């Protein structure tokens, strides 16, 4: 199918759904998916049944809390009559149906108009890349799943879940398939990868200049792991940095009765996970996950500014979100997780991943259990990981702020060149967020003080937020950025320090007690502790699409209950 046809069909469907929507919040909606064996189709019903394949509960409380909540579970049924493929397709099917209103609004806010007519050379190249990638994965599934490969089996399940999501959203008949619209639902899953794919297919058909300020210092997220001084608790937290239109959010729990590989009785280690996410996305994207295996996985983006590495971005690979979810489901330890994610590196959405194994944490013990903390970093052509448990116990914290920790990754990805041109802002230990964590992490003694640090931004008064700018500070130089507050007429060394619609949209935080039930604290709002809250009606960015958004974003911290998500 030609790219303009693909985009137009999906855009028309989005507009059709939007035209039928009412934007008021509703009570909890619950739907079940049943399987008609005679017709071999899945059907959605709104009354309770015991012989279901999947069930979903959904509560759109964005206007009250900044979050919607979604809980999806599957079951194999009596004598295991529902296969993993049927379960995972049904899970996607019911999610696509029950969240279709938010999916339409989020598409309108973030992807509408992407690759619209007249179709550019870049978009044609992107579609061809995605189609080739999808065909290659399908061939790998055909070649490897019958032989018992857990990896490719779970890649296959992810694609089936995506097909279910597409069919549930579109109200298509629920029939097992993997007929994916690569410029529709697949595009949703690879949002983080697009930044690197855009470099691979530059719109002006010229190589990326590694010193181009447009590709310099695009911060994505802050994260912190904090071990309390008495070793009584371990906090894990992450802030998402994203653009203002992205703020329609869903907290999700997936509880799937899936097996390790085809024909095996062993269930996966990560059968249940809770995570922050977005409408239409089957992974977190932030990323932040609490998993029944005992793992918490989170990341910040380190990116790549070395154009020489673009040759390693090939369609014979698996995109980051799929690899992450496969690892989340299969891995029983941090080392296993790193080994799985390291396979078929896409070279896109290049992140620094932190993997905490709470099963290895011993409260009040000063002696660390090896394997408690793994760090993994990815750039095109290279993945490096290491057990940094002892480092965490020595320093009592590990901060993450979009700069590579491993020297080889830092050097290969263009770090030294960035430092030579722009200075300490691009160093691992002297950039503003590193220094703020160094200065303030000792104040973290409980969940309240941890939350305060993760939401911290006092850029007009904090000397660590200063820069060679006019005025001499930037709201980028904080743990939770608020670049919308930088003066529009200011002058800045590079674009990321200036006025733009890029902010810390949230915070997620867990500890040993919360994690036992896969629960975490969450707040969805640009930070407002020391700054005015964000409000669309008073912002100079109110021209950006924000369908379904509240006007004022000043929501409190909530607890996402991993046992009862609708609570």
TrEMBL record:
<keyword id="KW-0732">Signal</keyword>
<keyword id="KW-0443">Lipid metabolism</keyword>
<dbReference type="GO" id="GO:0009395">
    <property type="term" value="P:phospholipid catabolic process"/>
</dbReference>
<feature type="signal peptide">
    <location>
        <begin position="1"/>
        <end position="26"/>
    </location>
</feature>
<keyword id="KW-0378">Hydrolase</keyword>
<keyword id="KW-0442">Lipid degradation</keyword>
<comment type="similarity">
    <text>Belongs to the phospholipase B-like family.</text>
</comment>
<dbReference type="Pfam" id="PF04916">
    <property type="entry name" value="Phospholip_B"/>
</dbReference>
<comment type="function">
    <text>Putative phospholipase.</text>
</comment>
<protein>
    <recommendedName>
        <fullName>Phospholipase B-like</fullName>
        <ecNumber>3.1.1.-</ecNumber>
    </recommendedName>
</protein>
<keyword id="KW-0325">Glycoprotein</keyword>
<dbReference type="GO" id="GO:0004620">
    <property type="term" value="F:phospholipase activity"/>
</dbReference>
<dbReference type="InterPro" id="IPR007000">
    <property type="entry name" value="PLipase_B-like"/>
</dbReference>
<dbReference type="GO" id="GO:0005576">
    <property type="term" value="C:extracellular region"/>
</dbReference>
């Amino acid at each position: 199918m030609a790219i303009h046809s693909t985009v137009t069909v999906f855009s028309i469907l989005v507009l059709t759904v939007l035209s039928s929507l009412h934007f008021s919040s509703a009570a909890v909606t619950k739907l079940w998916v049943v399987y008609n064996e005679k017709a071999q189709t899945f059907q959605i019903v709104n009354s309770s049944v015991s012989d279901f394949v999947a069930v979903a509960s959904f509560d759109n409380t964005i206007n009250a809390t900044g979050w919607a909540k979604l809980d999806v579970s599957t079951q194999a049924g009596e004598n295991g009559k529902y296969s993993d493929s049927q379960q995972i397709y049904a899970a996607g099917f019911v999610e696509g149906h029950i969240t279709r209103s938010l999916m339409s609004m989020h598409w309108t806010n973030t992807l509408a108009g992407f690759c619209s007519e007249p179709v550019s050379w870049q978009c044609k190249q992107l579609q061809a890349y995605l189609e080739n990638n999808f065909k290659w994965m399908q061939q790998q599934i055909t070649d490897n799943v019958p032989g018992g490969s857990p990896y490719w089996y779970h890649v296959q399940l992810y694609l089936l879940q995506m097909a279910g999501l597409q069919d549930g959203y579109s109200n298509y008949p629920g029939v097992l398939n993997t007929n994916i619209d690569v410029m529709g639902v697949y595009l949703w899953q690879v949002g983080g990868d697009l930044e690197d794919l855009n470099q691979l297919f530059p719109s002006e058909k010229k190589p990326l200049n590694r010193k181009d300020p447009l590709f310099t210092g695009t911060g994505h997220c802050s994260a912190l792991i904090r071990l309390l001084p008495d070793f009584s608790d371990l906090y894990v937290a992450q802030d998402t940095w994203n653009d203002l239109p992205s703020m329609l959010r869903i907290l999700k729990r997936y509880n799937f009765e899936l097996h390790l590989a085809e024909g095996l009785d062993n269930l996966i280690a990560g059968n249940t996970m809770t995570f922050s996410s977005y409408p239409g996305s089957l992974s977190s994207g932030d990323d932040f996950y609490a998993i029944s295996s005992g793992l918490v996985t989170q990341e910040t983006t380190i990116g790549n500014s070395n154009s020489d590495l673009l040759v390693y971005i090939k369609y014979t690979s698996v995109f980051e979100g799929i690899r992450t979810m496969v690892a989340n489901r299969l891995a029983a330890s941090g080392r296993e997780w790193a080994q799985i994610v390291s396979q078929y590196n896409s070279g896109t959405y290049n992140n620094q991943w932190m993997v905490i194994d709470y099963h290895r944490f011993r409260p009040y013990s000063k002696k660390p259990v090896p394997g408690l903390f793994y760090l993994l970093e990815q750039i095109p052509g290279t993945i490096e990981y290491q057990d940094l448990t002892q480092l965490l116990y020595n320093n009592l914290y590990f901060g993450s702020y979009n700069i590579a920790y491993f020297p080889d990754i830092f050097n290969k990805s263009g770090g030294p060149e960035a430092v030579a041109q722009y200075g300490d802002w691009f160093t691992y230990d002297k950039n503003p967020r590193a220094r703020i964590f160094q200065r303030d992490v000792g104040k973290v003694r409980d969940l309240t003080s941890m939350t305060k640090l993760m939401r911290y931004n006092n850029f007009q008064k904090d000397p660590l937020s200063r820069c060679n700018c006019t005025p001499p500070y930037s709201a980028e130089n904080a743990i939770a950025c608020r670049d919308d507050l930088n003066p529009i007429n200011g002058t800045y060394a590079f674009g990321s320090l200036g006025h733009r619609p890029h902010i810390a949209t949230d915070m997620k935080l867990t500890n040993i007690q919360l994690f036992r039930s896969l629960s975490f604290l969450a707040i969805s709002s640009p930070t407002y502790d020391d700054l005015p809250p964000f409000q669309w009606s008073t912002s100079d960015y109110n021209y950006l699409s924000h369908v379904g958004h509240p006007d004022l974003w000043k929501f409190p911290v909530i607890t996402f209950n991993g046992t009862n998500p609708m609570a």
